[in-house]
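Homework help thread (please don't just give me the answer)

Our assignment gives two proteins as sequence + structure token strings and asks us to describe the second one. The first is just a warm-up. Here they are:
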Amino acid sequence: MSLRTGQAIARTTGLVLNPNNLKIEGFYCEDRYEKTELVLLYQDIRDLISQGIIVNDHDVLVRPDDLVRLKKLIDLDYVLIGKAVATTDKKRLGKVVDFSTEFETMYIQKIYVTQGVIKGLTKGNLGIDRNQIHEVTDRKIIVNSPLESGVVQVGAAA
């Protein structure tokens, strides 16, 4: 939403995510007027409210081709949701279903991992803190053992 006009100017469709440091560099957006794909850089966000992301004006939305500094990340098109998660000792934990972000820096602080249908019903999801992440690859996220601090069961059935 634009502060200047008070109107919706675009709809977010995805993330520009840096897998090297798990930082959201921007958001892919569909322009409301031209229906083209644009990018909103995280530093151009004024506020987050329940209705959406607040920016100064439509001018902050940029064509992906114009972002030379982020070209490699845009070409990489890294998607976190759905990535397999395993421990350093190769035990499969599940897949990423959600994450939480610190608004000021846009670093992902925690990832939430579903353990599959059966384990998910009985044990809930795992919440894994960013300091427990050992490595991020194209195919999976490798974390330290869940017995170490930072991994928390979330939403376990009683």
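The one we have to describe:
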Amino acid sequence: MGNADATSAPSGEQAAPAGDAPALPLGLDVQPHARAVLEGAFAPGATPSHAYLLHGPSGSGKRNAARAFAAALLADDPRSITAIPQRIAHSSHPDLTWVTPSGAAEMLVSDVEEPVVAAAARTPFEAARRVFVIERVETMNDEAANRLLKTLEEPPAFVHMLLLTDRREGVAPTIASRCQHVRFNPLPAARIAAELERLEGVDPGRALASARLSLGDAAHARVLAGDRGEAMRKAAERFVRSALAADTAARPWLAMLEQANAAGAAVGEQAQQRLADELELLPAKERKRFERESADARRRGERRARTRALDEMLALCELWLRDALCVSERAPELVHAVDRRSELDEDASAAGSERLRDAIALVQDARLALPLNVGEELALEALAYRIQALGGRGD
């Protein structure tokens, strides 16, 4: 089952929604469209929609906005304005349910069946509304989407749903068409870089490169600016540069696999620690079943983390090739990896524009295949040899 932050309320008579909830600051100064839609829901005479689709790159503020908007929906009077956000931050409000996918690559029907569909039919615990936040709705499989659809079409008056996605085009049309869309734009690279310098103490050159490579994803930029991000960049750059140079004898894909496995192991360790903490609170007769279900969830989580890390590194490979192509086409101002300019100049000169374009297409195909449970090592090895077959340096 997906991770849900609140339990279901007891069934009973449906309560009418509260009047206009007091608007809370949503922190959307750099997101004018999202600010207009979400803050407008609390304007005099306005009524919040039953469903919103918040879409845009990760790190652009969707989750923080969802928390603040949920707090505004659940605040019944001015006295609760300060307390509600604190309770939401600590996952302690019974009328807020926050769901994330539990499948290795998709959201399963069990993620929405009880936490959302069944719970939405029950009256709130203490507020006049119930709020459901569902992350990564683009991963929802057909069965889960069909189960959620009826609730979206005919929700109780007290139910509000906030659906979050980094890829709007991946959301089922039947789901997207029943929501009010809220757009979050990528953050400007200069703004992200300035925050990395100010808050993280990152070197200006590295901060700008991380910001540009993140494509407006502030959360990803923070990762790229750190030690793990630097290791991922080096592994990706070594892989693609070795393939371009027809120098794959050292199997450069192994460094990428090592980074991906480390990401999976870190998620597994976190899950194991949560399991240990929760087992102490369970009756002895329920522990074996809980351990079995937790082990399955841990394996899926590790798989998701490995796949995500590999996709991030393949994205870095794709950006490297694009940067080299920009240099080759005399457009260096468009380069993302501004701290690797000499290496890009070398690859641009040796590979040539046509070969770089073909290599970009190969990396894109490999990224599309990743969620299909392909053999990861075999897929990377095949990609390296295909890029190598385009011709190495010195041809």
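TA reply:
I won't write it for you, but here's a hint about the kind of observation we're looking for: Residues 32-183 form a domain with the Rossmann fold fold (CATH 3.40.50.300).
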